[in-house]
Amino acid sequence: MKTFKSEKRFYPDYLSEIIFSILIALELLLVLVLIFPPEVGRQIDFSKPFQPLPEWYFLWLFELVSYFPGNLMFIGTFLIPLSCILLLLLIPFLDKGKYGRIKAYIAGSAVLLVFCLFTILSLVE
Amino acid sequence: MGKLFDWFDSRFAVKAPHRRFFERSIPPNLNYTYCFGGIAFTYFLILVLSGLLLSIFYVPSEKEAYKSVVMITNDIPFGWLIRGVHKWSASLFIIFIILHAIRVFVSKAYRPPRELNWVIGTSIFVIAMASGFTGYLLPWDQKAYWATEVGTSMVGTIPLIGKSLMYMIGGGSEVTGTTLIRFFSLHVLFLPLMIGILLWLHFHIVKRQGISTNL
Amino acid sequence: MDRRNFLKRVVKLFFLSLNLSLIIIISYLYPSKIKQKRLLNIYVTDEEFLPKKGIKRFEYSFDKDGERVTNFVFIKRDEEGLTAFSPFCTHLGCLIRWNNIHKEFICACHGGRFDKEGNVIAGPPPRPLERMPIEIKDGKVFLGIKA
Ligand code: FES
User: Which residues lie closer than 8 Å to A76 by C-beta, 6 or more apart?
Assistant: First the structure.
C-alpha cells in the first residue's frame, strides 16, 4: 500500500469524518420523514380510472413509453432503458485511447441527460 | 481498549488482522464528496433495519396487505415513523448512489484496475431500482396496483421473450395476489441478498486497491 | 491424460453441470397455470337502461375466487346494434374514460385516445379497444367476460 505524506489515519481521523457525515444523513432522513409522513393510499377499485404515478426514479421510463406508439413500443420500454444500462456499464471500457475520456463523458452525460430530461418532461405535464 | 474487549480479543484475535485496515493512512486530498458512497451504504443499513421491522406486521396477501399497511401506519406506535423512514431512505439511497457515481466518474476512479468495481456498482444501482419497483406494489393500494400493472405490461412488450418474462415476474398476465407474493419475496429476500453480496464485493475491492487518488 | 488432468476435468464438469439446476429453477418459477380464462356470462343491467343512441358506462360486479370484483364496461348503441368495449387500454392496461363532449375515449396514463368505434386516434396504443360479447335475453343485458 502506498504511504502518504499526511499523517491522516483511517482511525480516528477519517472515521470521525465519516461519522459526522452519517449524522447529517440521518438528520436529512428524519427531517424528510417528519415533513412528509407516509400516507395510506386508496384501496384498489376497478370501477374508477386512476392515473398511476411511479416512484420518481421511474418517471423517465413512464414518460418514455408515451413517445413510441403501436409496434414501436418496445423502443421506449426496452431498447432505450437497456442501452442506458449498457452505456453505464461500459464507461470504463470506453475510456481507452486518446479520446477515451471524451467518449466516457459523452456516454455518462447521455445517460444522465435522458434521465433528467424525461423526468422533467413528465413533471411538467 | 476496555477490559472486556481485551478478554474477547485474547481469544478470537480480531484486533491484529484489522489493524492494517484501521490504521492505514488515507490520501490527503479527499473531500466530503468521497462520503457519498458511505452515506448510500448508511441508507442501505437503515433500509434493512426498518424493512425487518416492517416485515413483522406486514401480511403479504391479497386480502390482508392493505389492512396491515393501514394498521402499521395508524395503530402501531411509531409505525408511521418506521414506514416513513423506509420509504424515504429508499429514495435517498438512490439519490446518493447517483451522486456517488458522479463523484467516481469525475475523479476518474473507474479507470483500470477499478473497472470491475464500476460494473459492480452499476449492478447495485439497477438492483436497487428493481427493489424500489417491487416494494412499490406491497402497500396494495390504487397507486401501487396501477403503477405495477403498467410496469409489468412494459416488460411484456419486449420482443420474443417479453410475455414469458412477464409471466415469470408477475406470475400471470395481470397483477393479482400471485404477483404480490412474488414481489414480496423478491423485495424482501432475493434482491437485498443480491445487493448485500455485491456490496461486500464492492468494499472488498476498495480495500484491496485502496482509495483512488486520480484526481 | 494423467490422473491430475483428469481430475481437473472432473472438477470443471461438476461446476458446469451445476448450471443444469437453472433449468429446474426456471421451470419452478414459471407460473404453472397461467390462469385458464373462462368466458362468464354476467348480468349487467336491464335493457331499458341502455342508451337509445350513444355510449354509456355501466358498472357490474361478480364473484371471482370468492371475492367480489367490481368493474365497468362501455356499451354503445347505434344503427348497427350493440357493442361493448372493455375499459382496459390496449397500451399498458390502464382504465379509460369516455369523454362525452369530444366523443372519444381517453386514457390518462400516456394520453391514448380512441374514437367511438374504439379505433386509436392518438397516443401510443397499438390496437383498437377490445370488444366484449354482449347479448340481450328477456330484457336483461348479459356481458361475456373473461375471468
Ligand atoms: S396505458 Fe393507455 S395510453 Fe398507455
Answer: A61, A64, A65, A66, A67, A68
